[in-house]
Design a protein that fits this description.
The protein is α+β, with helices and mostly antiparallel strands. The chain has 5 helices and 10 strands, in the order αββββαββαβαβββα.
Length: about 180
């Protein structure tokens, strides 16, 4: 992992938080292919970054961290195959899939956004087909204000220089909200 990459540091902090709270965490390893081989070698893309498990649910998660106040829908930031894989995972009983968005420069606000809620907002933003009224609609991104509206907050504290996240609290909230097909 890149030592100075804020996104990777964020993922490490989540992993450490899970370990400290006795929550299973598995990071799916990225495959590195040297530049000279990339055009000749086909490599499968990871569907998401990790799995978190706490009985009775599995959570496929894609992490996103930014210093900005929104995440662009641009393919370089949020990839189509990630959206599709999370959407497919969410169709299985016991799986709660989504993004964890981290806004580093805005009090380290961190929120879980269920993939279905993300897709509804994206459809509203890009196509104008809205199932609900959002606090803000950007055609090409999901802003912090919308993540706060549709997501579940992940409380965190800074310990010296690294963060700890209250993952147990998040999981309890997600299980209450999404288990048993009760998602609206």
């Amino acid at each position: 992992m890149a030592k100075n990459n804020p996104g990777k540091i964020f993922e490490q902090d989540i992993e450490t938080s899970c370990s400290e709270q006795n929550i299973f965490y598995y990071r799916i390893k990225d495959t590195f292919i040297p530049m000279e081989l990339r055009k000749r070698v086909k490599v499968t893309k990871n569907d998401y970054d990790s799995f978190v498990y706490k009985y009775p649910n599995l959570f496929p998660i894609e992490f996103k961290s930014t210093q900005n106040k929104s995440f662009s829908f641009d393919e370089k930031i949020i990839k189509k195959h990630q959206i599709e894989a999370l959407e497919k995972a969410a169709t299985y009983d016991g799986l709660i899939a989504g993004f964890i968005f981290n806004f580093r420069e805005y009090d380290n606000k961190t929120l879980f956004v269920h993939i279905e809620d993300f897709i509804k907002y994206k459809k509203c933003a890009e196509e104008g087909i809205c199932e609900m009224e959002y606090v803000k609609v950007n055609k090409s991104s999901i802003p912090l204000e919308v993540c706060e509206q549709i997501g579940e907050p992940i409380h965190n504290v800074k310990k010296k220089i690294r963060y700890r996240y209250y993952i147990n609290k998040l999981i309890s909230s997600l299980i209450d909200k999404y288990s048993g097909g009760n998602h609206d």
